[in-house]
Fold this protein.
Amino acid sequence: MRLDSTVPAIRVATQNERPVRPEGEYVLLWMIGARRTRWNFALDRAIGWARELDRPLVVVEPLRVDYPYASDRFHHYVIDGMADHARAFAHESVTYVPWVERLAGDGRGMLEAYAQHACVVVTDDTPIPFLRGMVRAAAGRVQVRLEAIDSVGLLPLRAAPQVFGYAHAFRRFLQKTLPTHLGHAPAAVPFDGVTLPRLAALPDAVSARWPGLSPNALENPSSWVGSLPLDHSVTALRERGGDEAARAQLTRFVRTGLLRYGDRSHPDLDAQSGLSGWLHFGHLSAHEVFGAIADHAGWTPARLAAKPTGSRDGWWNVGPEADGFLDELVTWRELGHVRAHLTDDGARYEGVAGWARASLEEHASDPRPELYDLTTLERAGTSDPVWNAAQRQLRAEGRIHNYLRMLWGKKVLAWSPHPAEAFERLVYLNDKYAIDGRDPNSYSGIGWVFGSYDRPWAPQRPVYGQIRYMTSDSAQKKLKMKAYLARWSRP
Ligand SMILES: Cc1cc2nc3c(=O)[nH]c(=O)nc-3n(C[C@H](O)[C@H](O)[C@H](O)COP(=O)(O)OP(=O)(O)OC[C@H]3O[C@@H](n4cnc5c(N)ncnc54)[C@H](O)[C@@H]3O)c2cc1C
């Protein structure tokens, strides 16, 4: 059975050979990647099936306790999103089940049990390995069709023919290819004009064993998250997760921050968007961010550069600040996602660009003037106040100022016995503490520290070889960061 859907076919990946069962009780959306109620191709697809089959829509948003680096920080963020989703879906003809696992393994069998009553199951296609692994494993176990929908970026993941080793080459590809995809955005208001049949009740077998969280539990996660088997040392952030906080920050950024984006390298000016956590958890869609910038700038596709040159300048034509921002959001963000979609080597030292790894290996036995163990790094106990400030910000706020994030990585390379160990340490520190960690961009960012996506630099230096070199002294000389250092001089 085929669905004449508003979702482009290139974003739909059918995961098994099972049929759609029109006699099922509902259409199931298993929300694991694009955790949001708007601008979401997976939700659009599920609504499309529910309308076609004239069946209720059930949205289950699960959260396990055994994902990599599971902590209070990530749990709170996701649960904030669930609270927003419960409020938003309450106005629609949808049965929404936010479910949080209490003990590892409690969720085993849950998707299959829900799927037993479903006509079709829709979920997310995301290049985050543990999520993709879950979807692949589920495909063989559910008895109905399972579709995974790509709502990751402006470019459908399957439109990329290869991994790109340089932003310039990827940008040139985007300049040729994106115009055909830009006209197909997910719905900003997916339920506009849609009325679906309501489900009287979930099957007893599933609601009794896997009950959804109450509104009170969703609004007060502090009262119960502490009892879950998580890393409680990585504490919840002051920053709220969820669609509402994401949208508020996007609005603030477009109104007041975007104009200053050109100053984003200065830690004291705090001129970045701060959106990466919400983008990572799927609370915010790249399409929505792009739409907000385009509306603000009065942009139309007629402004796109006529020729694909690979150059950033003159591509979007929305002014230097917005051009710079869109290049990060589209070229750099999607570069990492495309790579993670096509290979799994980005998260490993072996995936670093060949020339860069060769150069690092040549210098692997160079004496290191200072060496630190992981515990000292984690506690921000080095002799470098700039590095320590960045590490303290990471632990406390789950983020590091963008420029300092690069410097932070470069220093760990110099302070570790071997570059392969430095890579592992960065993955550990980033993924454990950063609210946007465990993302394809985590590994492209860390890969960049080791030379990927960059070019060889002269002169060759001890330890770094031909890899770009950065120092805290020069950062302090050229950047405004006094207030930043004062703020983070102590935990
Ligand atoms: C060592 C290191 C580790 C990194 N780890 C991560 C990570 O775990 N998760 C993550 O999302 N990004 C990571 N980055 C990339 C970048 O630092 C962050 O995306 C950015 O700082 C997020 O802040 P922002 O949302 O205010 O960015 P803004 O400058 O406002 O950019 C807007 C969006 O564009 C994307 N973006 C911006 N810069 C980059 C970049 N260099 N590469 C890829 N996408 C980018 C992000 O989605 C970001 O939210 C890392 C970079 C380095 C050097």
The chain has a mean pLDDT of 96.
